[in-house]
Amino acid sequence: MTLLQLRYVIACVENGTIAKAAQAMYTSTSNLSQSIRGLESEVGFEIFHRSNNGITLTEKGTVFLEHAMKIQLEIDTIAKLKEAETVNRFSCTCMHLPYCYMAFESLCRHYEEKDNYLLSIDVAFLPKCIEAVQMHLSEIAVISMPEVIASIECQRIKDQGLSIQMLAEQHLNINLRADHPALADNTEGQSFELSKLHDYPYVSYHSSADDVIHPLDFSHPSYCPTEAFNSKKQITVNNVDWKARLIGSTNAYGIGTTGPEQWAAQYNWKSIPVEGARSFLYYVYSDRYELSEPAHYFINYLLKILEKNPT
What protein family does this chain belong to (predicted)? Predict the structure, then answer.
């Protein structure tokens, strides 16, 4: 039995159906259903009655829910004690965002002379970022979403009892090598025909093994303009540095924000705006707790970087 399974049960009760609970918890319906089935097998009784009209608690399930909610409350209390014990404790889960790495580097330099600190950063896709804050594994999450899904996902995050604040509005760009052959006949300021990229590979963080999660990332092929994307030529990576290196050293191209100017110079790539395509950068946190001093430092430094690198 895990805390996540207990949260799944609570989410099912709050949302009325397994499908809606899965959406709220940023997981697939099959994954959540299997997790609850496994929990029922472990405890030896059914927690839910299942029908075409949805789910209802069994008699034992009602008692189980009461205890699950008490456990969640106790976990929240323990998390508060942990945060109170270590003043300079900070953890962040972010998407593949170079600005976050720069802010974290500054945070580490700021605290390296201190006697008491524990700082950590992890990289994940949007659902895992949100889950990390829900499960108190991270104090904040930094996420980026294409405009087309932003309003829906923001509301879903708020429905989970989390707070979300915008950091910046960003333009989505085609990123490619500065001396890419597709740019051979293109002069500065001239509109770029995306169809010129059709014969070149597209590089993203997408994995076909998990289409439920990855469409929430703007590097997903579904966000690539159709005139440019060639499904027969794809490269996938799970590291922002590898993606930048590939774009700067091969004929591959990708979609993303402009990124820090020094990265463009370091990796020899150029950004071409995709007309009408925007994304929004946010940080997510639980308003049950006050943000720590390191969290405020991290967020403020991140804002400074974004001001210096408008996109």
Answer: Belongs to the LysR transcriptional regulatory family.
> What is the token pair recorded at 296?
């405020």
Fold (topology level) of 3-82: Arc Repressor Mutant, subunit A (1.10.10)
Spell out the domain ranges in the chain: 3-82, 87-311
- Cα 20 to Cα 138: distance, rounded to the nearest angstrom: 24
Q: Is 268 exposed, middle or buried (0-12, 13-18, 19+ CB in 10 A)?
A: middle
CB-CB contact of 198 with 230 (8 Å): yes
CB atoms < 10 A from the CB of 122, how many?
14
What are the φ and ψ backbone dihedral angles of 203, each rounded to 5 degrees?
-110, 135
Nearest Cα to Cα of residue 6 among 71, 98, 97: 71
**Token couple for 49:** 């009655």
One-letter amino acid at 100 equals C
In this prediction the pTM is: 0.71
User: Which class in CATH covers the domain with range 87-311?
Assistant: alpha beta
